[in-house]
Design goal:
The chain is an alpha+beta fold. It contains 15 helices and 17 strands. The strands form four sheets. It has a five-stranded antiparallel sheet. It has a five-stranded antiparallel sheet with strand order 7-6-10-9-8, sandwiched between helices. Strand 8 and strand 9 form a beta hairpin. The longest helix has 68 residues. The chain is rod-shaped. GO terms for molecular function: kinase activity. It is found in: Cell membrane. This is Two-component sensor histidine kinase. InterPro entries: Bact_2-comp_sensor_kinase, HAMP_dom, HATPase_C_sf, Sig_transdc_His_kin_internal.
């Protein structure tokens, strides 16, 4: 993934695809949720319409029952006479009048009992009050929840009992006239249909919040919810000129309303749908939709990443190949699988071009190798006289001071060293080169007894690696020339070697004087640029040049100061170009 994002073309494409996919996904999710929300609001609206239709049907049924009962009164003279008697302003007057108008040959008919039998019971308790009125007062028959009637006589028409409010119910008014007397009106019947009973019939509907609002502004609440808030919303809905719409009560509080005007009475049925509550009720479905959309977006992005990453790998490999050619690194790269497209064709042709260049350069290298060997021998001979001079000076000084057998041992070690130098080929193993270095270090121990010590810690895996002859001694000699202090009681030179994953490492470490930072930078620049014009650091420069001739770009040398004291020279040799020295 990191290599894929490193290529600017595909990084920008990927960001564009992410923005596009996320935008489309969110748009589809929001559109789907909006459609579902609209459907749920529509379902709630249909539910409210059905509930309102139920209320209208119940009111119509009651109206039909009342009409039928009026026909019953007109078709029964005895019942009509008893109703006329019921207009008396007291119970005693009513009872006296009905006895006076009764005939012994006919059974007594009771208007209140007839109302209970044929109207209250017939209407299933919805008609809870019937009153018979003159111009000044009215007499009332009222039924409680258990169907037990109670009577009130002589109540003024302005009494609270006769106030027409939706909180109590709906009032049907019917004029009462006597046909026998030329249809002369003698009273008015008022039938109160209980709002509690009417709206109780729609309690099975999923309304949420609903109300009935009369023309006078009275509000009968249906369903649960804060009464004050519901009343305010109902008033706003009724005052709105539209039959449906939205009411906002804050940033996250939106309500949908729908109103239905009654054809029977002067009131409006209002249904309030809280959108936040509606969303909470269907939260699981909405979460499922968002999870599906999220999973789809992730799958699409993974498919895009797969295709872009595959193309990016080919382009990255092409860029790497061009970079290798620019640095003259023509070593064969590991084979790769290429697609059968333009990228694959370019990558295959580029790999083939690198192989052809490598063959051509190798042929040219073979023609120049003799010249390089001559230069290496010249460099080596430039070092050897300097070393011989220094060594002989050491032996001379020691012989003058000690005049003992140690001088003979030193001369023997020097002779063995030069025999090895003359006898062996220019290409030897690391093990043989370490032997030459140790003989030199033994001579230096002889020169500085009890002042100089050395250690060689090299893993066996490095011993058979081939190398050029006599390059470790100049590194050690630099220590004695620039870093060694005869006044110091403990001068140490350590050689470490180990095998890493893809290369070998040799370290030459001392505890002498370090190198000034400015001088160290100059040395590093000389080594990195292969600058032969400098007259200083001839030992390091010659060693670096000889090893570079032998190993090529698979070799590197680094020189740095130790944190404690002294200098550390690190030599890395790649495993790709090193074979075991079988003839060394």
């Amino acid at each position: 993934m990191s290599s894929f994002l490193q290529i600017k073309i595909y990084r920008h494409k990927f960001i564009a695809y992410v923005i596009f996919v996320v935008t489309i996904g969110l748009a589809l999710a929001i559109l789907t949720c909006a459609m579902l929300l609209n459907q749920w609001v529509g379902d709630a609206r249909i539910e409210a319409a059905n509930a309102f239709a139920g209320v209208e049907n119940e009111l119509q049924y009651d109206a039909d029952r009342i009409e039928a009962y009026m026909q019953r009164i007109y078709s029964n003279p005895s019942l009509m006479n008893d109703a006329r008697s019921f207009l008396n302003n007291s119970a005693e007057d009513y009872l006296t009048s009905r006895l006076q108008n009764s005939q012994f040959s006919q059974p007594l008919v009771s208007f209140p009992e007839d109302i209970k039998t044929y109207l209250y019971s017939w209407a299933q308790g919805e008609i809870t009050q019937i009153s018979l009125h003159t111009n000044q007062y009215g007499n009332v028959v009222r039924f409680n929840d258990n169907g037990i009637e109670s009577f009130m006589f002589g109540l003024p028409n302005t009494d609270e009992t006769f106030h027409d409010t939706i909180l109590k119910g709906f009032v049907y008014r019917k004029k009462l006239s006597d046909v026998a007397q030329g249809s002369q009106e003698f009273g008015e019947l008022r039938f109160l249909v209980s709002s509690d009973q009417i709206f109780k019939s729609i309690q099975n509907y999923r309304l949420g919040k609903a109300a009935a609002v009369s023309a006078s502004g009275d509000i009968y609440l249906i369903g649960n919810g804060p009464a004050q808030e519901m009343k305010e919303l109902s008033r706003l809905a009724v005052e709105n000129e539209r039959s449906h719409g939205f009411i906002s009560k804050g940033l996250f509080k939106h309500n949908y309303f729908v109103t239905f005007p009654s054809t029977k009475f002067n009131f409006k049925f209002v249904s309030i749908i809280d959108l936040s509550t509606l969303i909470q009720q269907h939260a699981r479905m909405l979460q499922t939709i968002f999870l599906i959309v999220l999973a789809t977006m992730i799958c699409v992005l993974l498919l895009i990443v797969y295709n872009l990453r595959d193309d990016a790998l080919f382009l990255h490999r092409i860029i790497q190949s061009i970079g290798r050619v620019k640095t003259a690194n023509f070593t064969p790269n590991r084979p790769a699988r290429y697609r059968r497209n333009e990228y694959g064709m370019i990558a295959r042709e580029l790999d083939d071009m690198i192989q052809q260049l490598d063959k051509h350069i190798r042929n040219e290298y073979l023609l120049k190798i003799k010249q390089q060997e001559t230069e290496m021998k010249a460099l080596q001979h430039q070092i050897n006289p300097h070393f011989l001079y220094n060594t002989l000076e050491v032996i001379r000084s020691t012989a003058l001071v000690n005049q003992d057998r140690d001088t003979a041992d030193a001369i023997a070690t020097l002779g063995a060293l030069y025999r090895e130098i003359v006898k062996k080929e220019n290409i030897i193993s690391i093990a043989s080169e370490l032997e030459l270095l140790q003989k030199y270090l033994e001579i230096m121990e002889f020169k500085y007894p009890e002042r100089f010590y050395y250690q060689v810690n090299v893993e066996p895996a490095l011993l058979k690696v081939p190398t050029v002859k006599f390059w470790m001694q100049p590194l050690a000699e630099n220590f004695f020339v620039h870093g060694f202090s005869a006044s110091n009681e403990f001068n140490l030179y350590v050689v470490n070697g180990w095998e890493a994953d893809d290369h070998y490492v040799l370290e030459f470490v001392d505890n002498g004087r370090g190198i000034h930072e400015e001088r160290l930078n100059t040395i590093r620049s000389t080594l990195s640029n292969n600058d032969d014009t400098s007259s200083k650091s001839i030992g390091l420069r010659n060693v670096n040049t000889r090893l570079h001739f032998f190993y090529g770009n698979s070799f590197s040398m680094k020189i740095e100061n130790n944190e404690e004291a002294g200098v550390k020279i690190s030599v890395k040799i790649s495993k790709e170009v090193t074979l075991e020295c079988t003839n060394c």
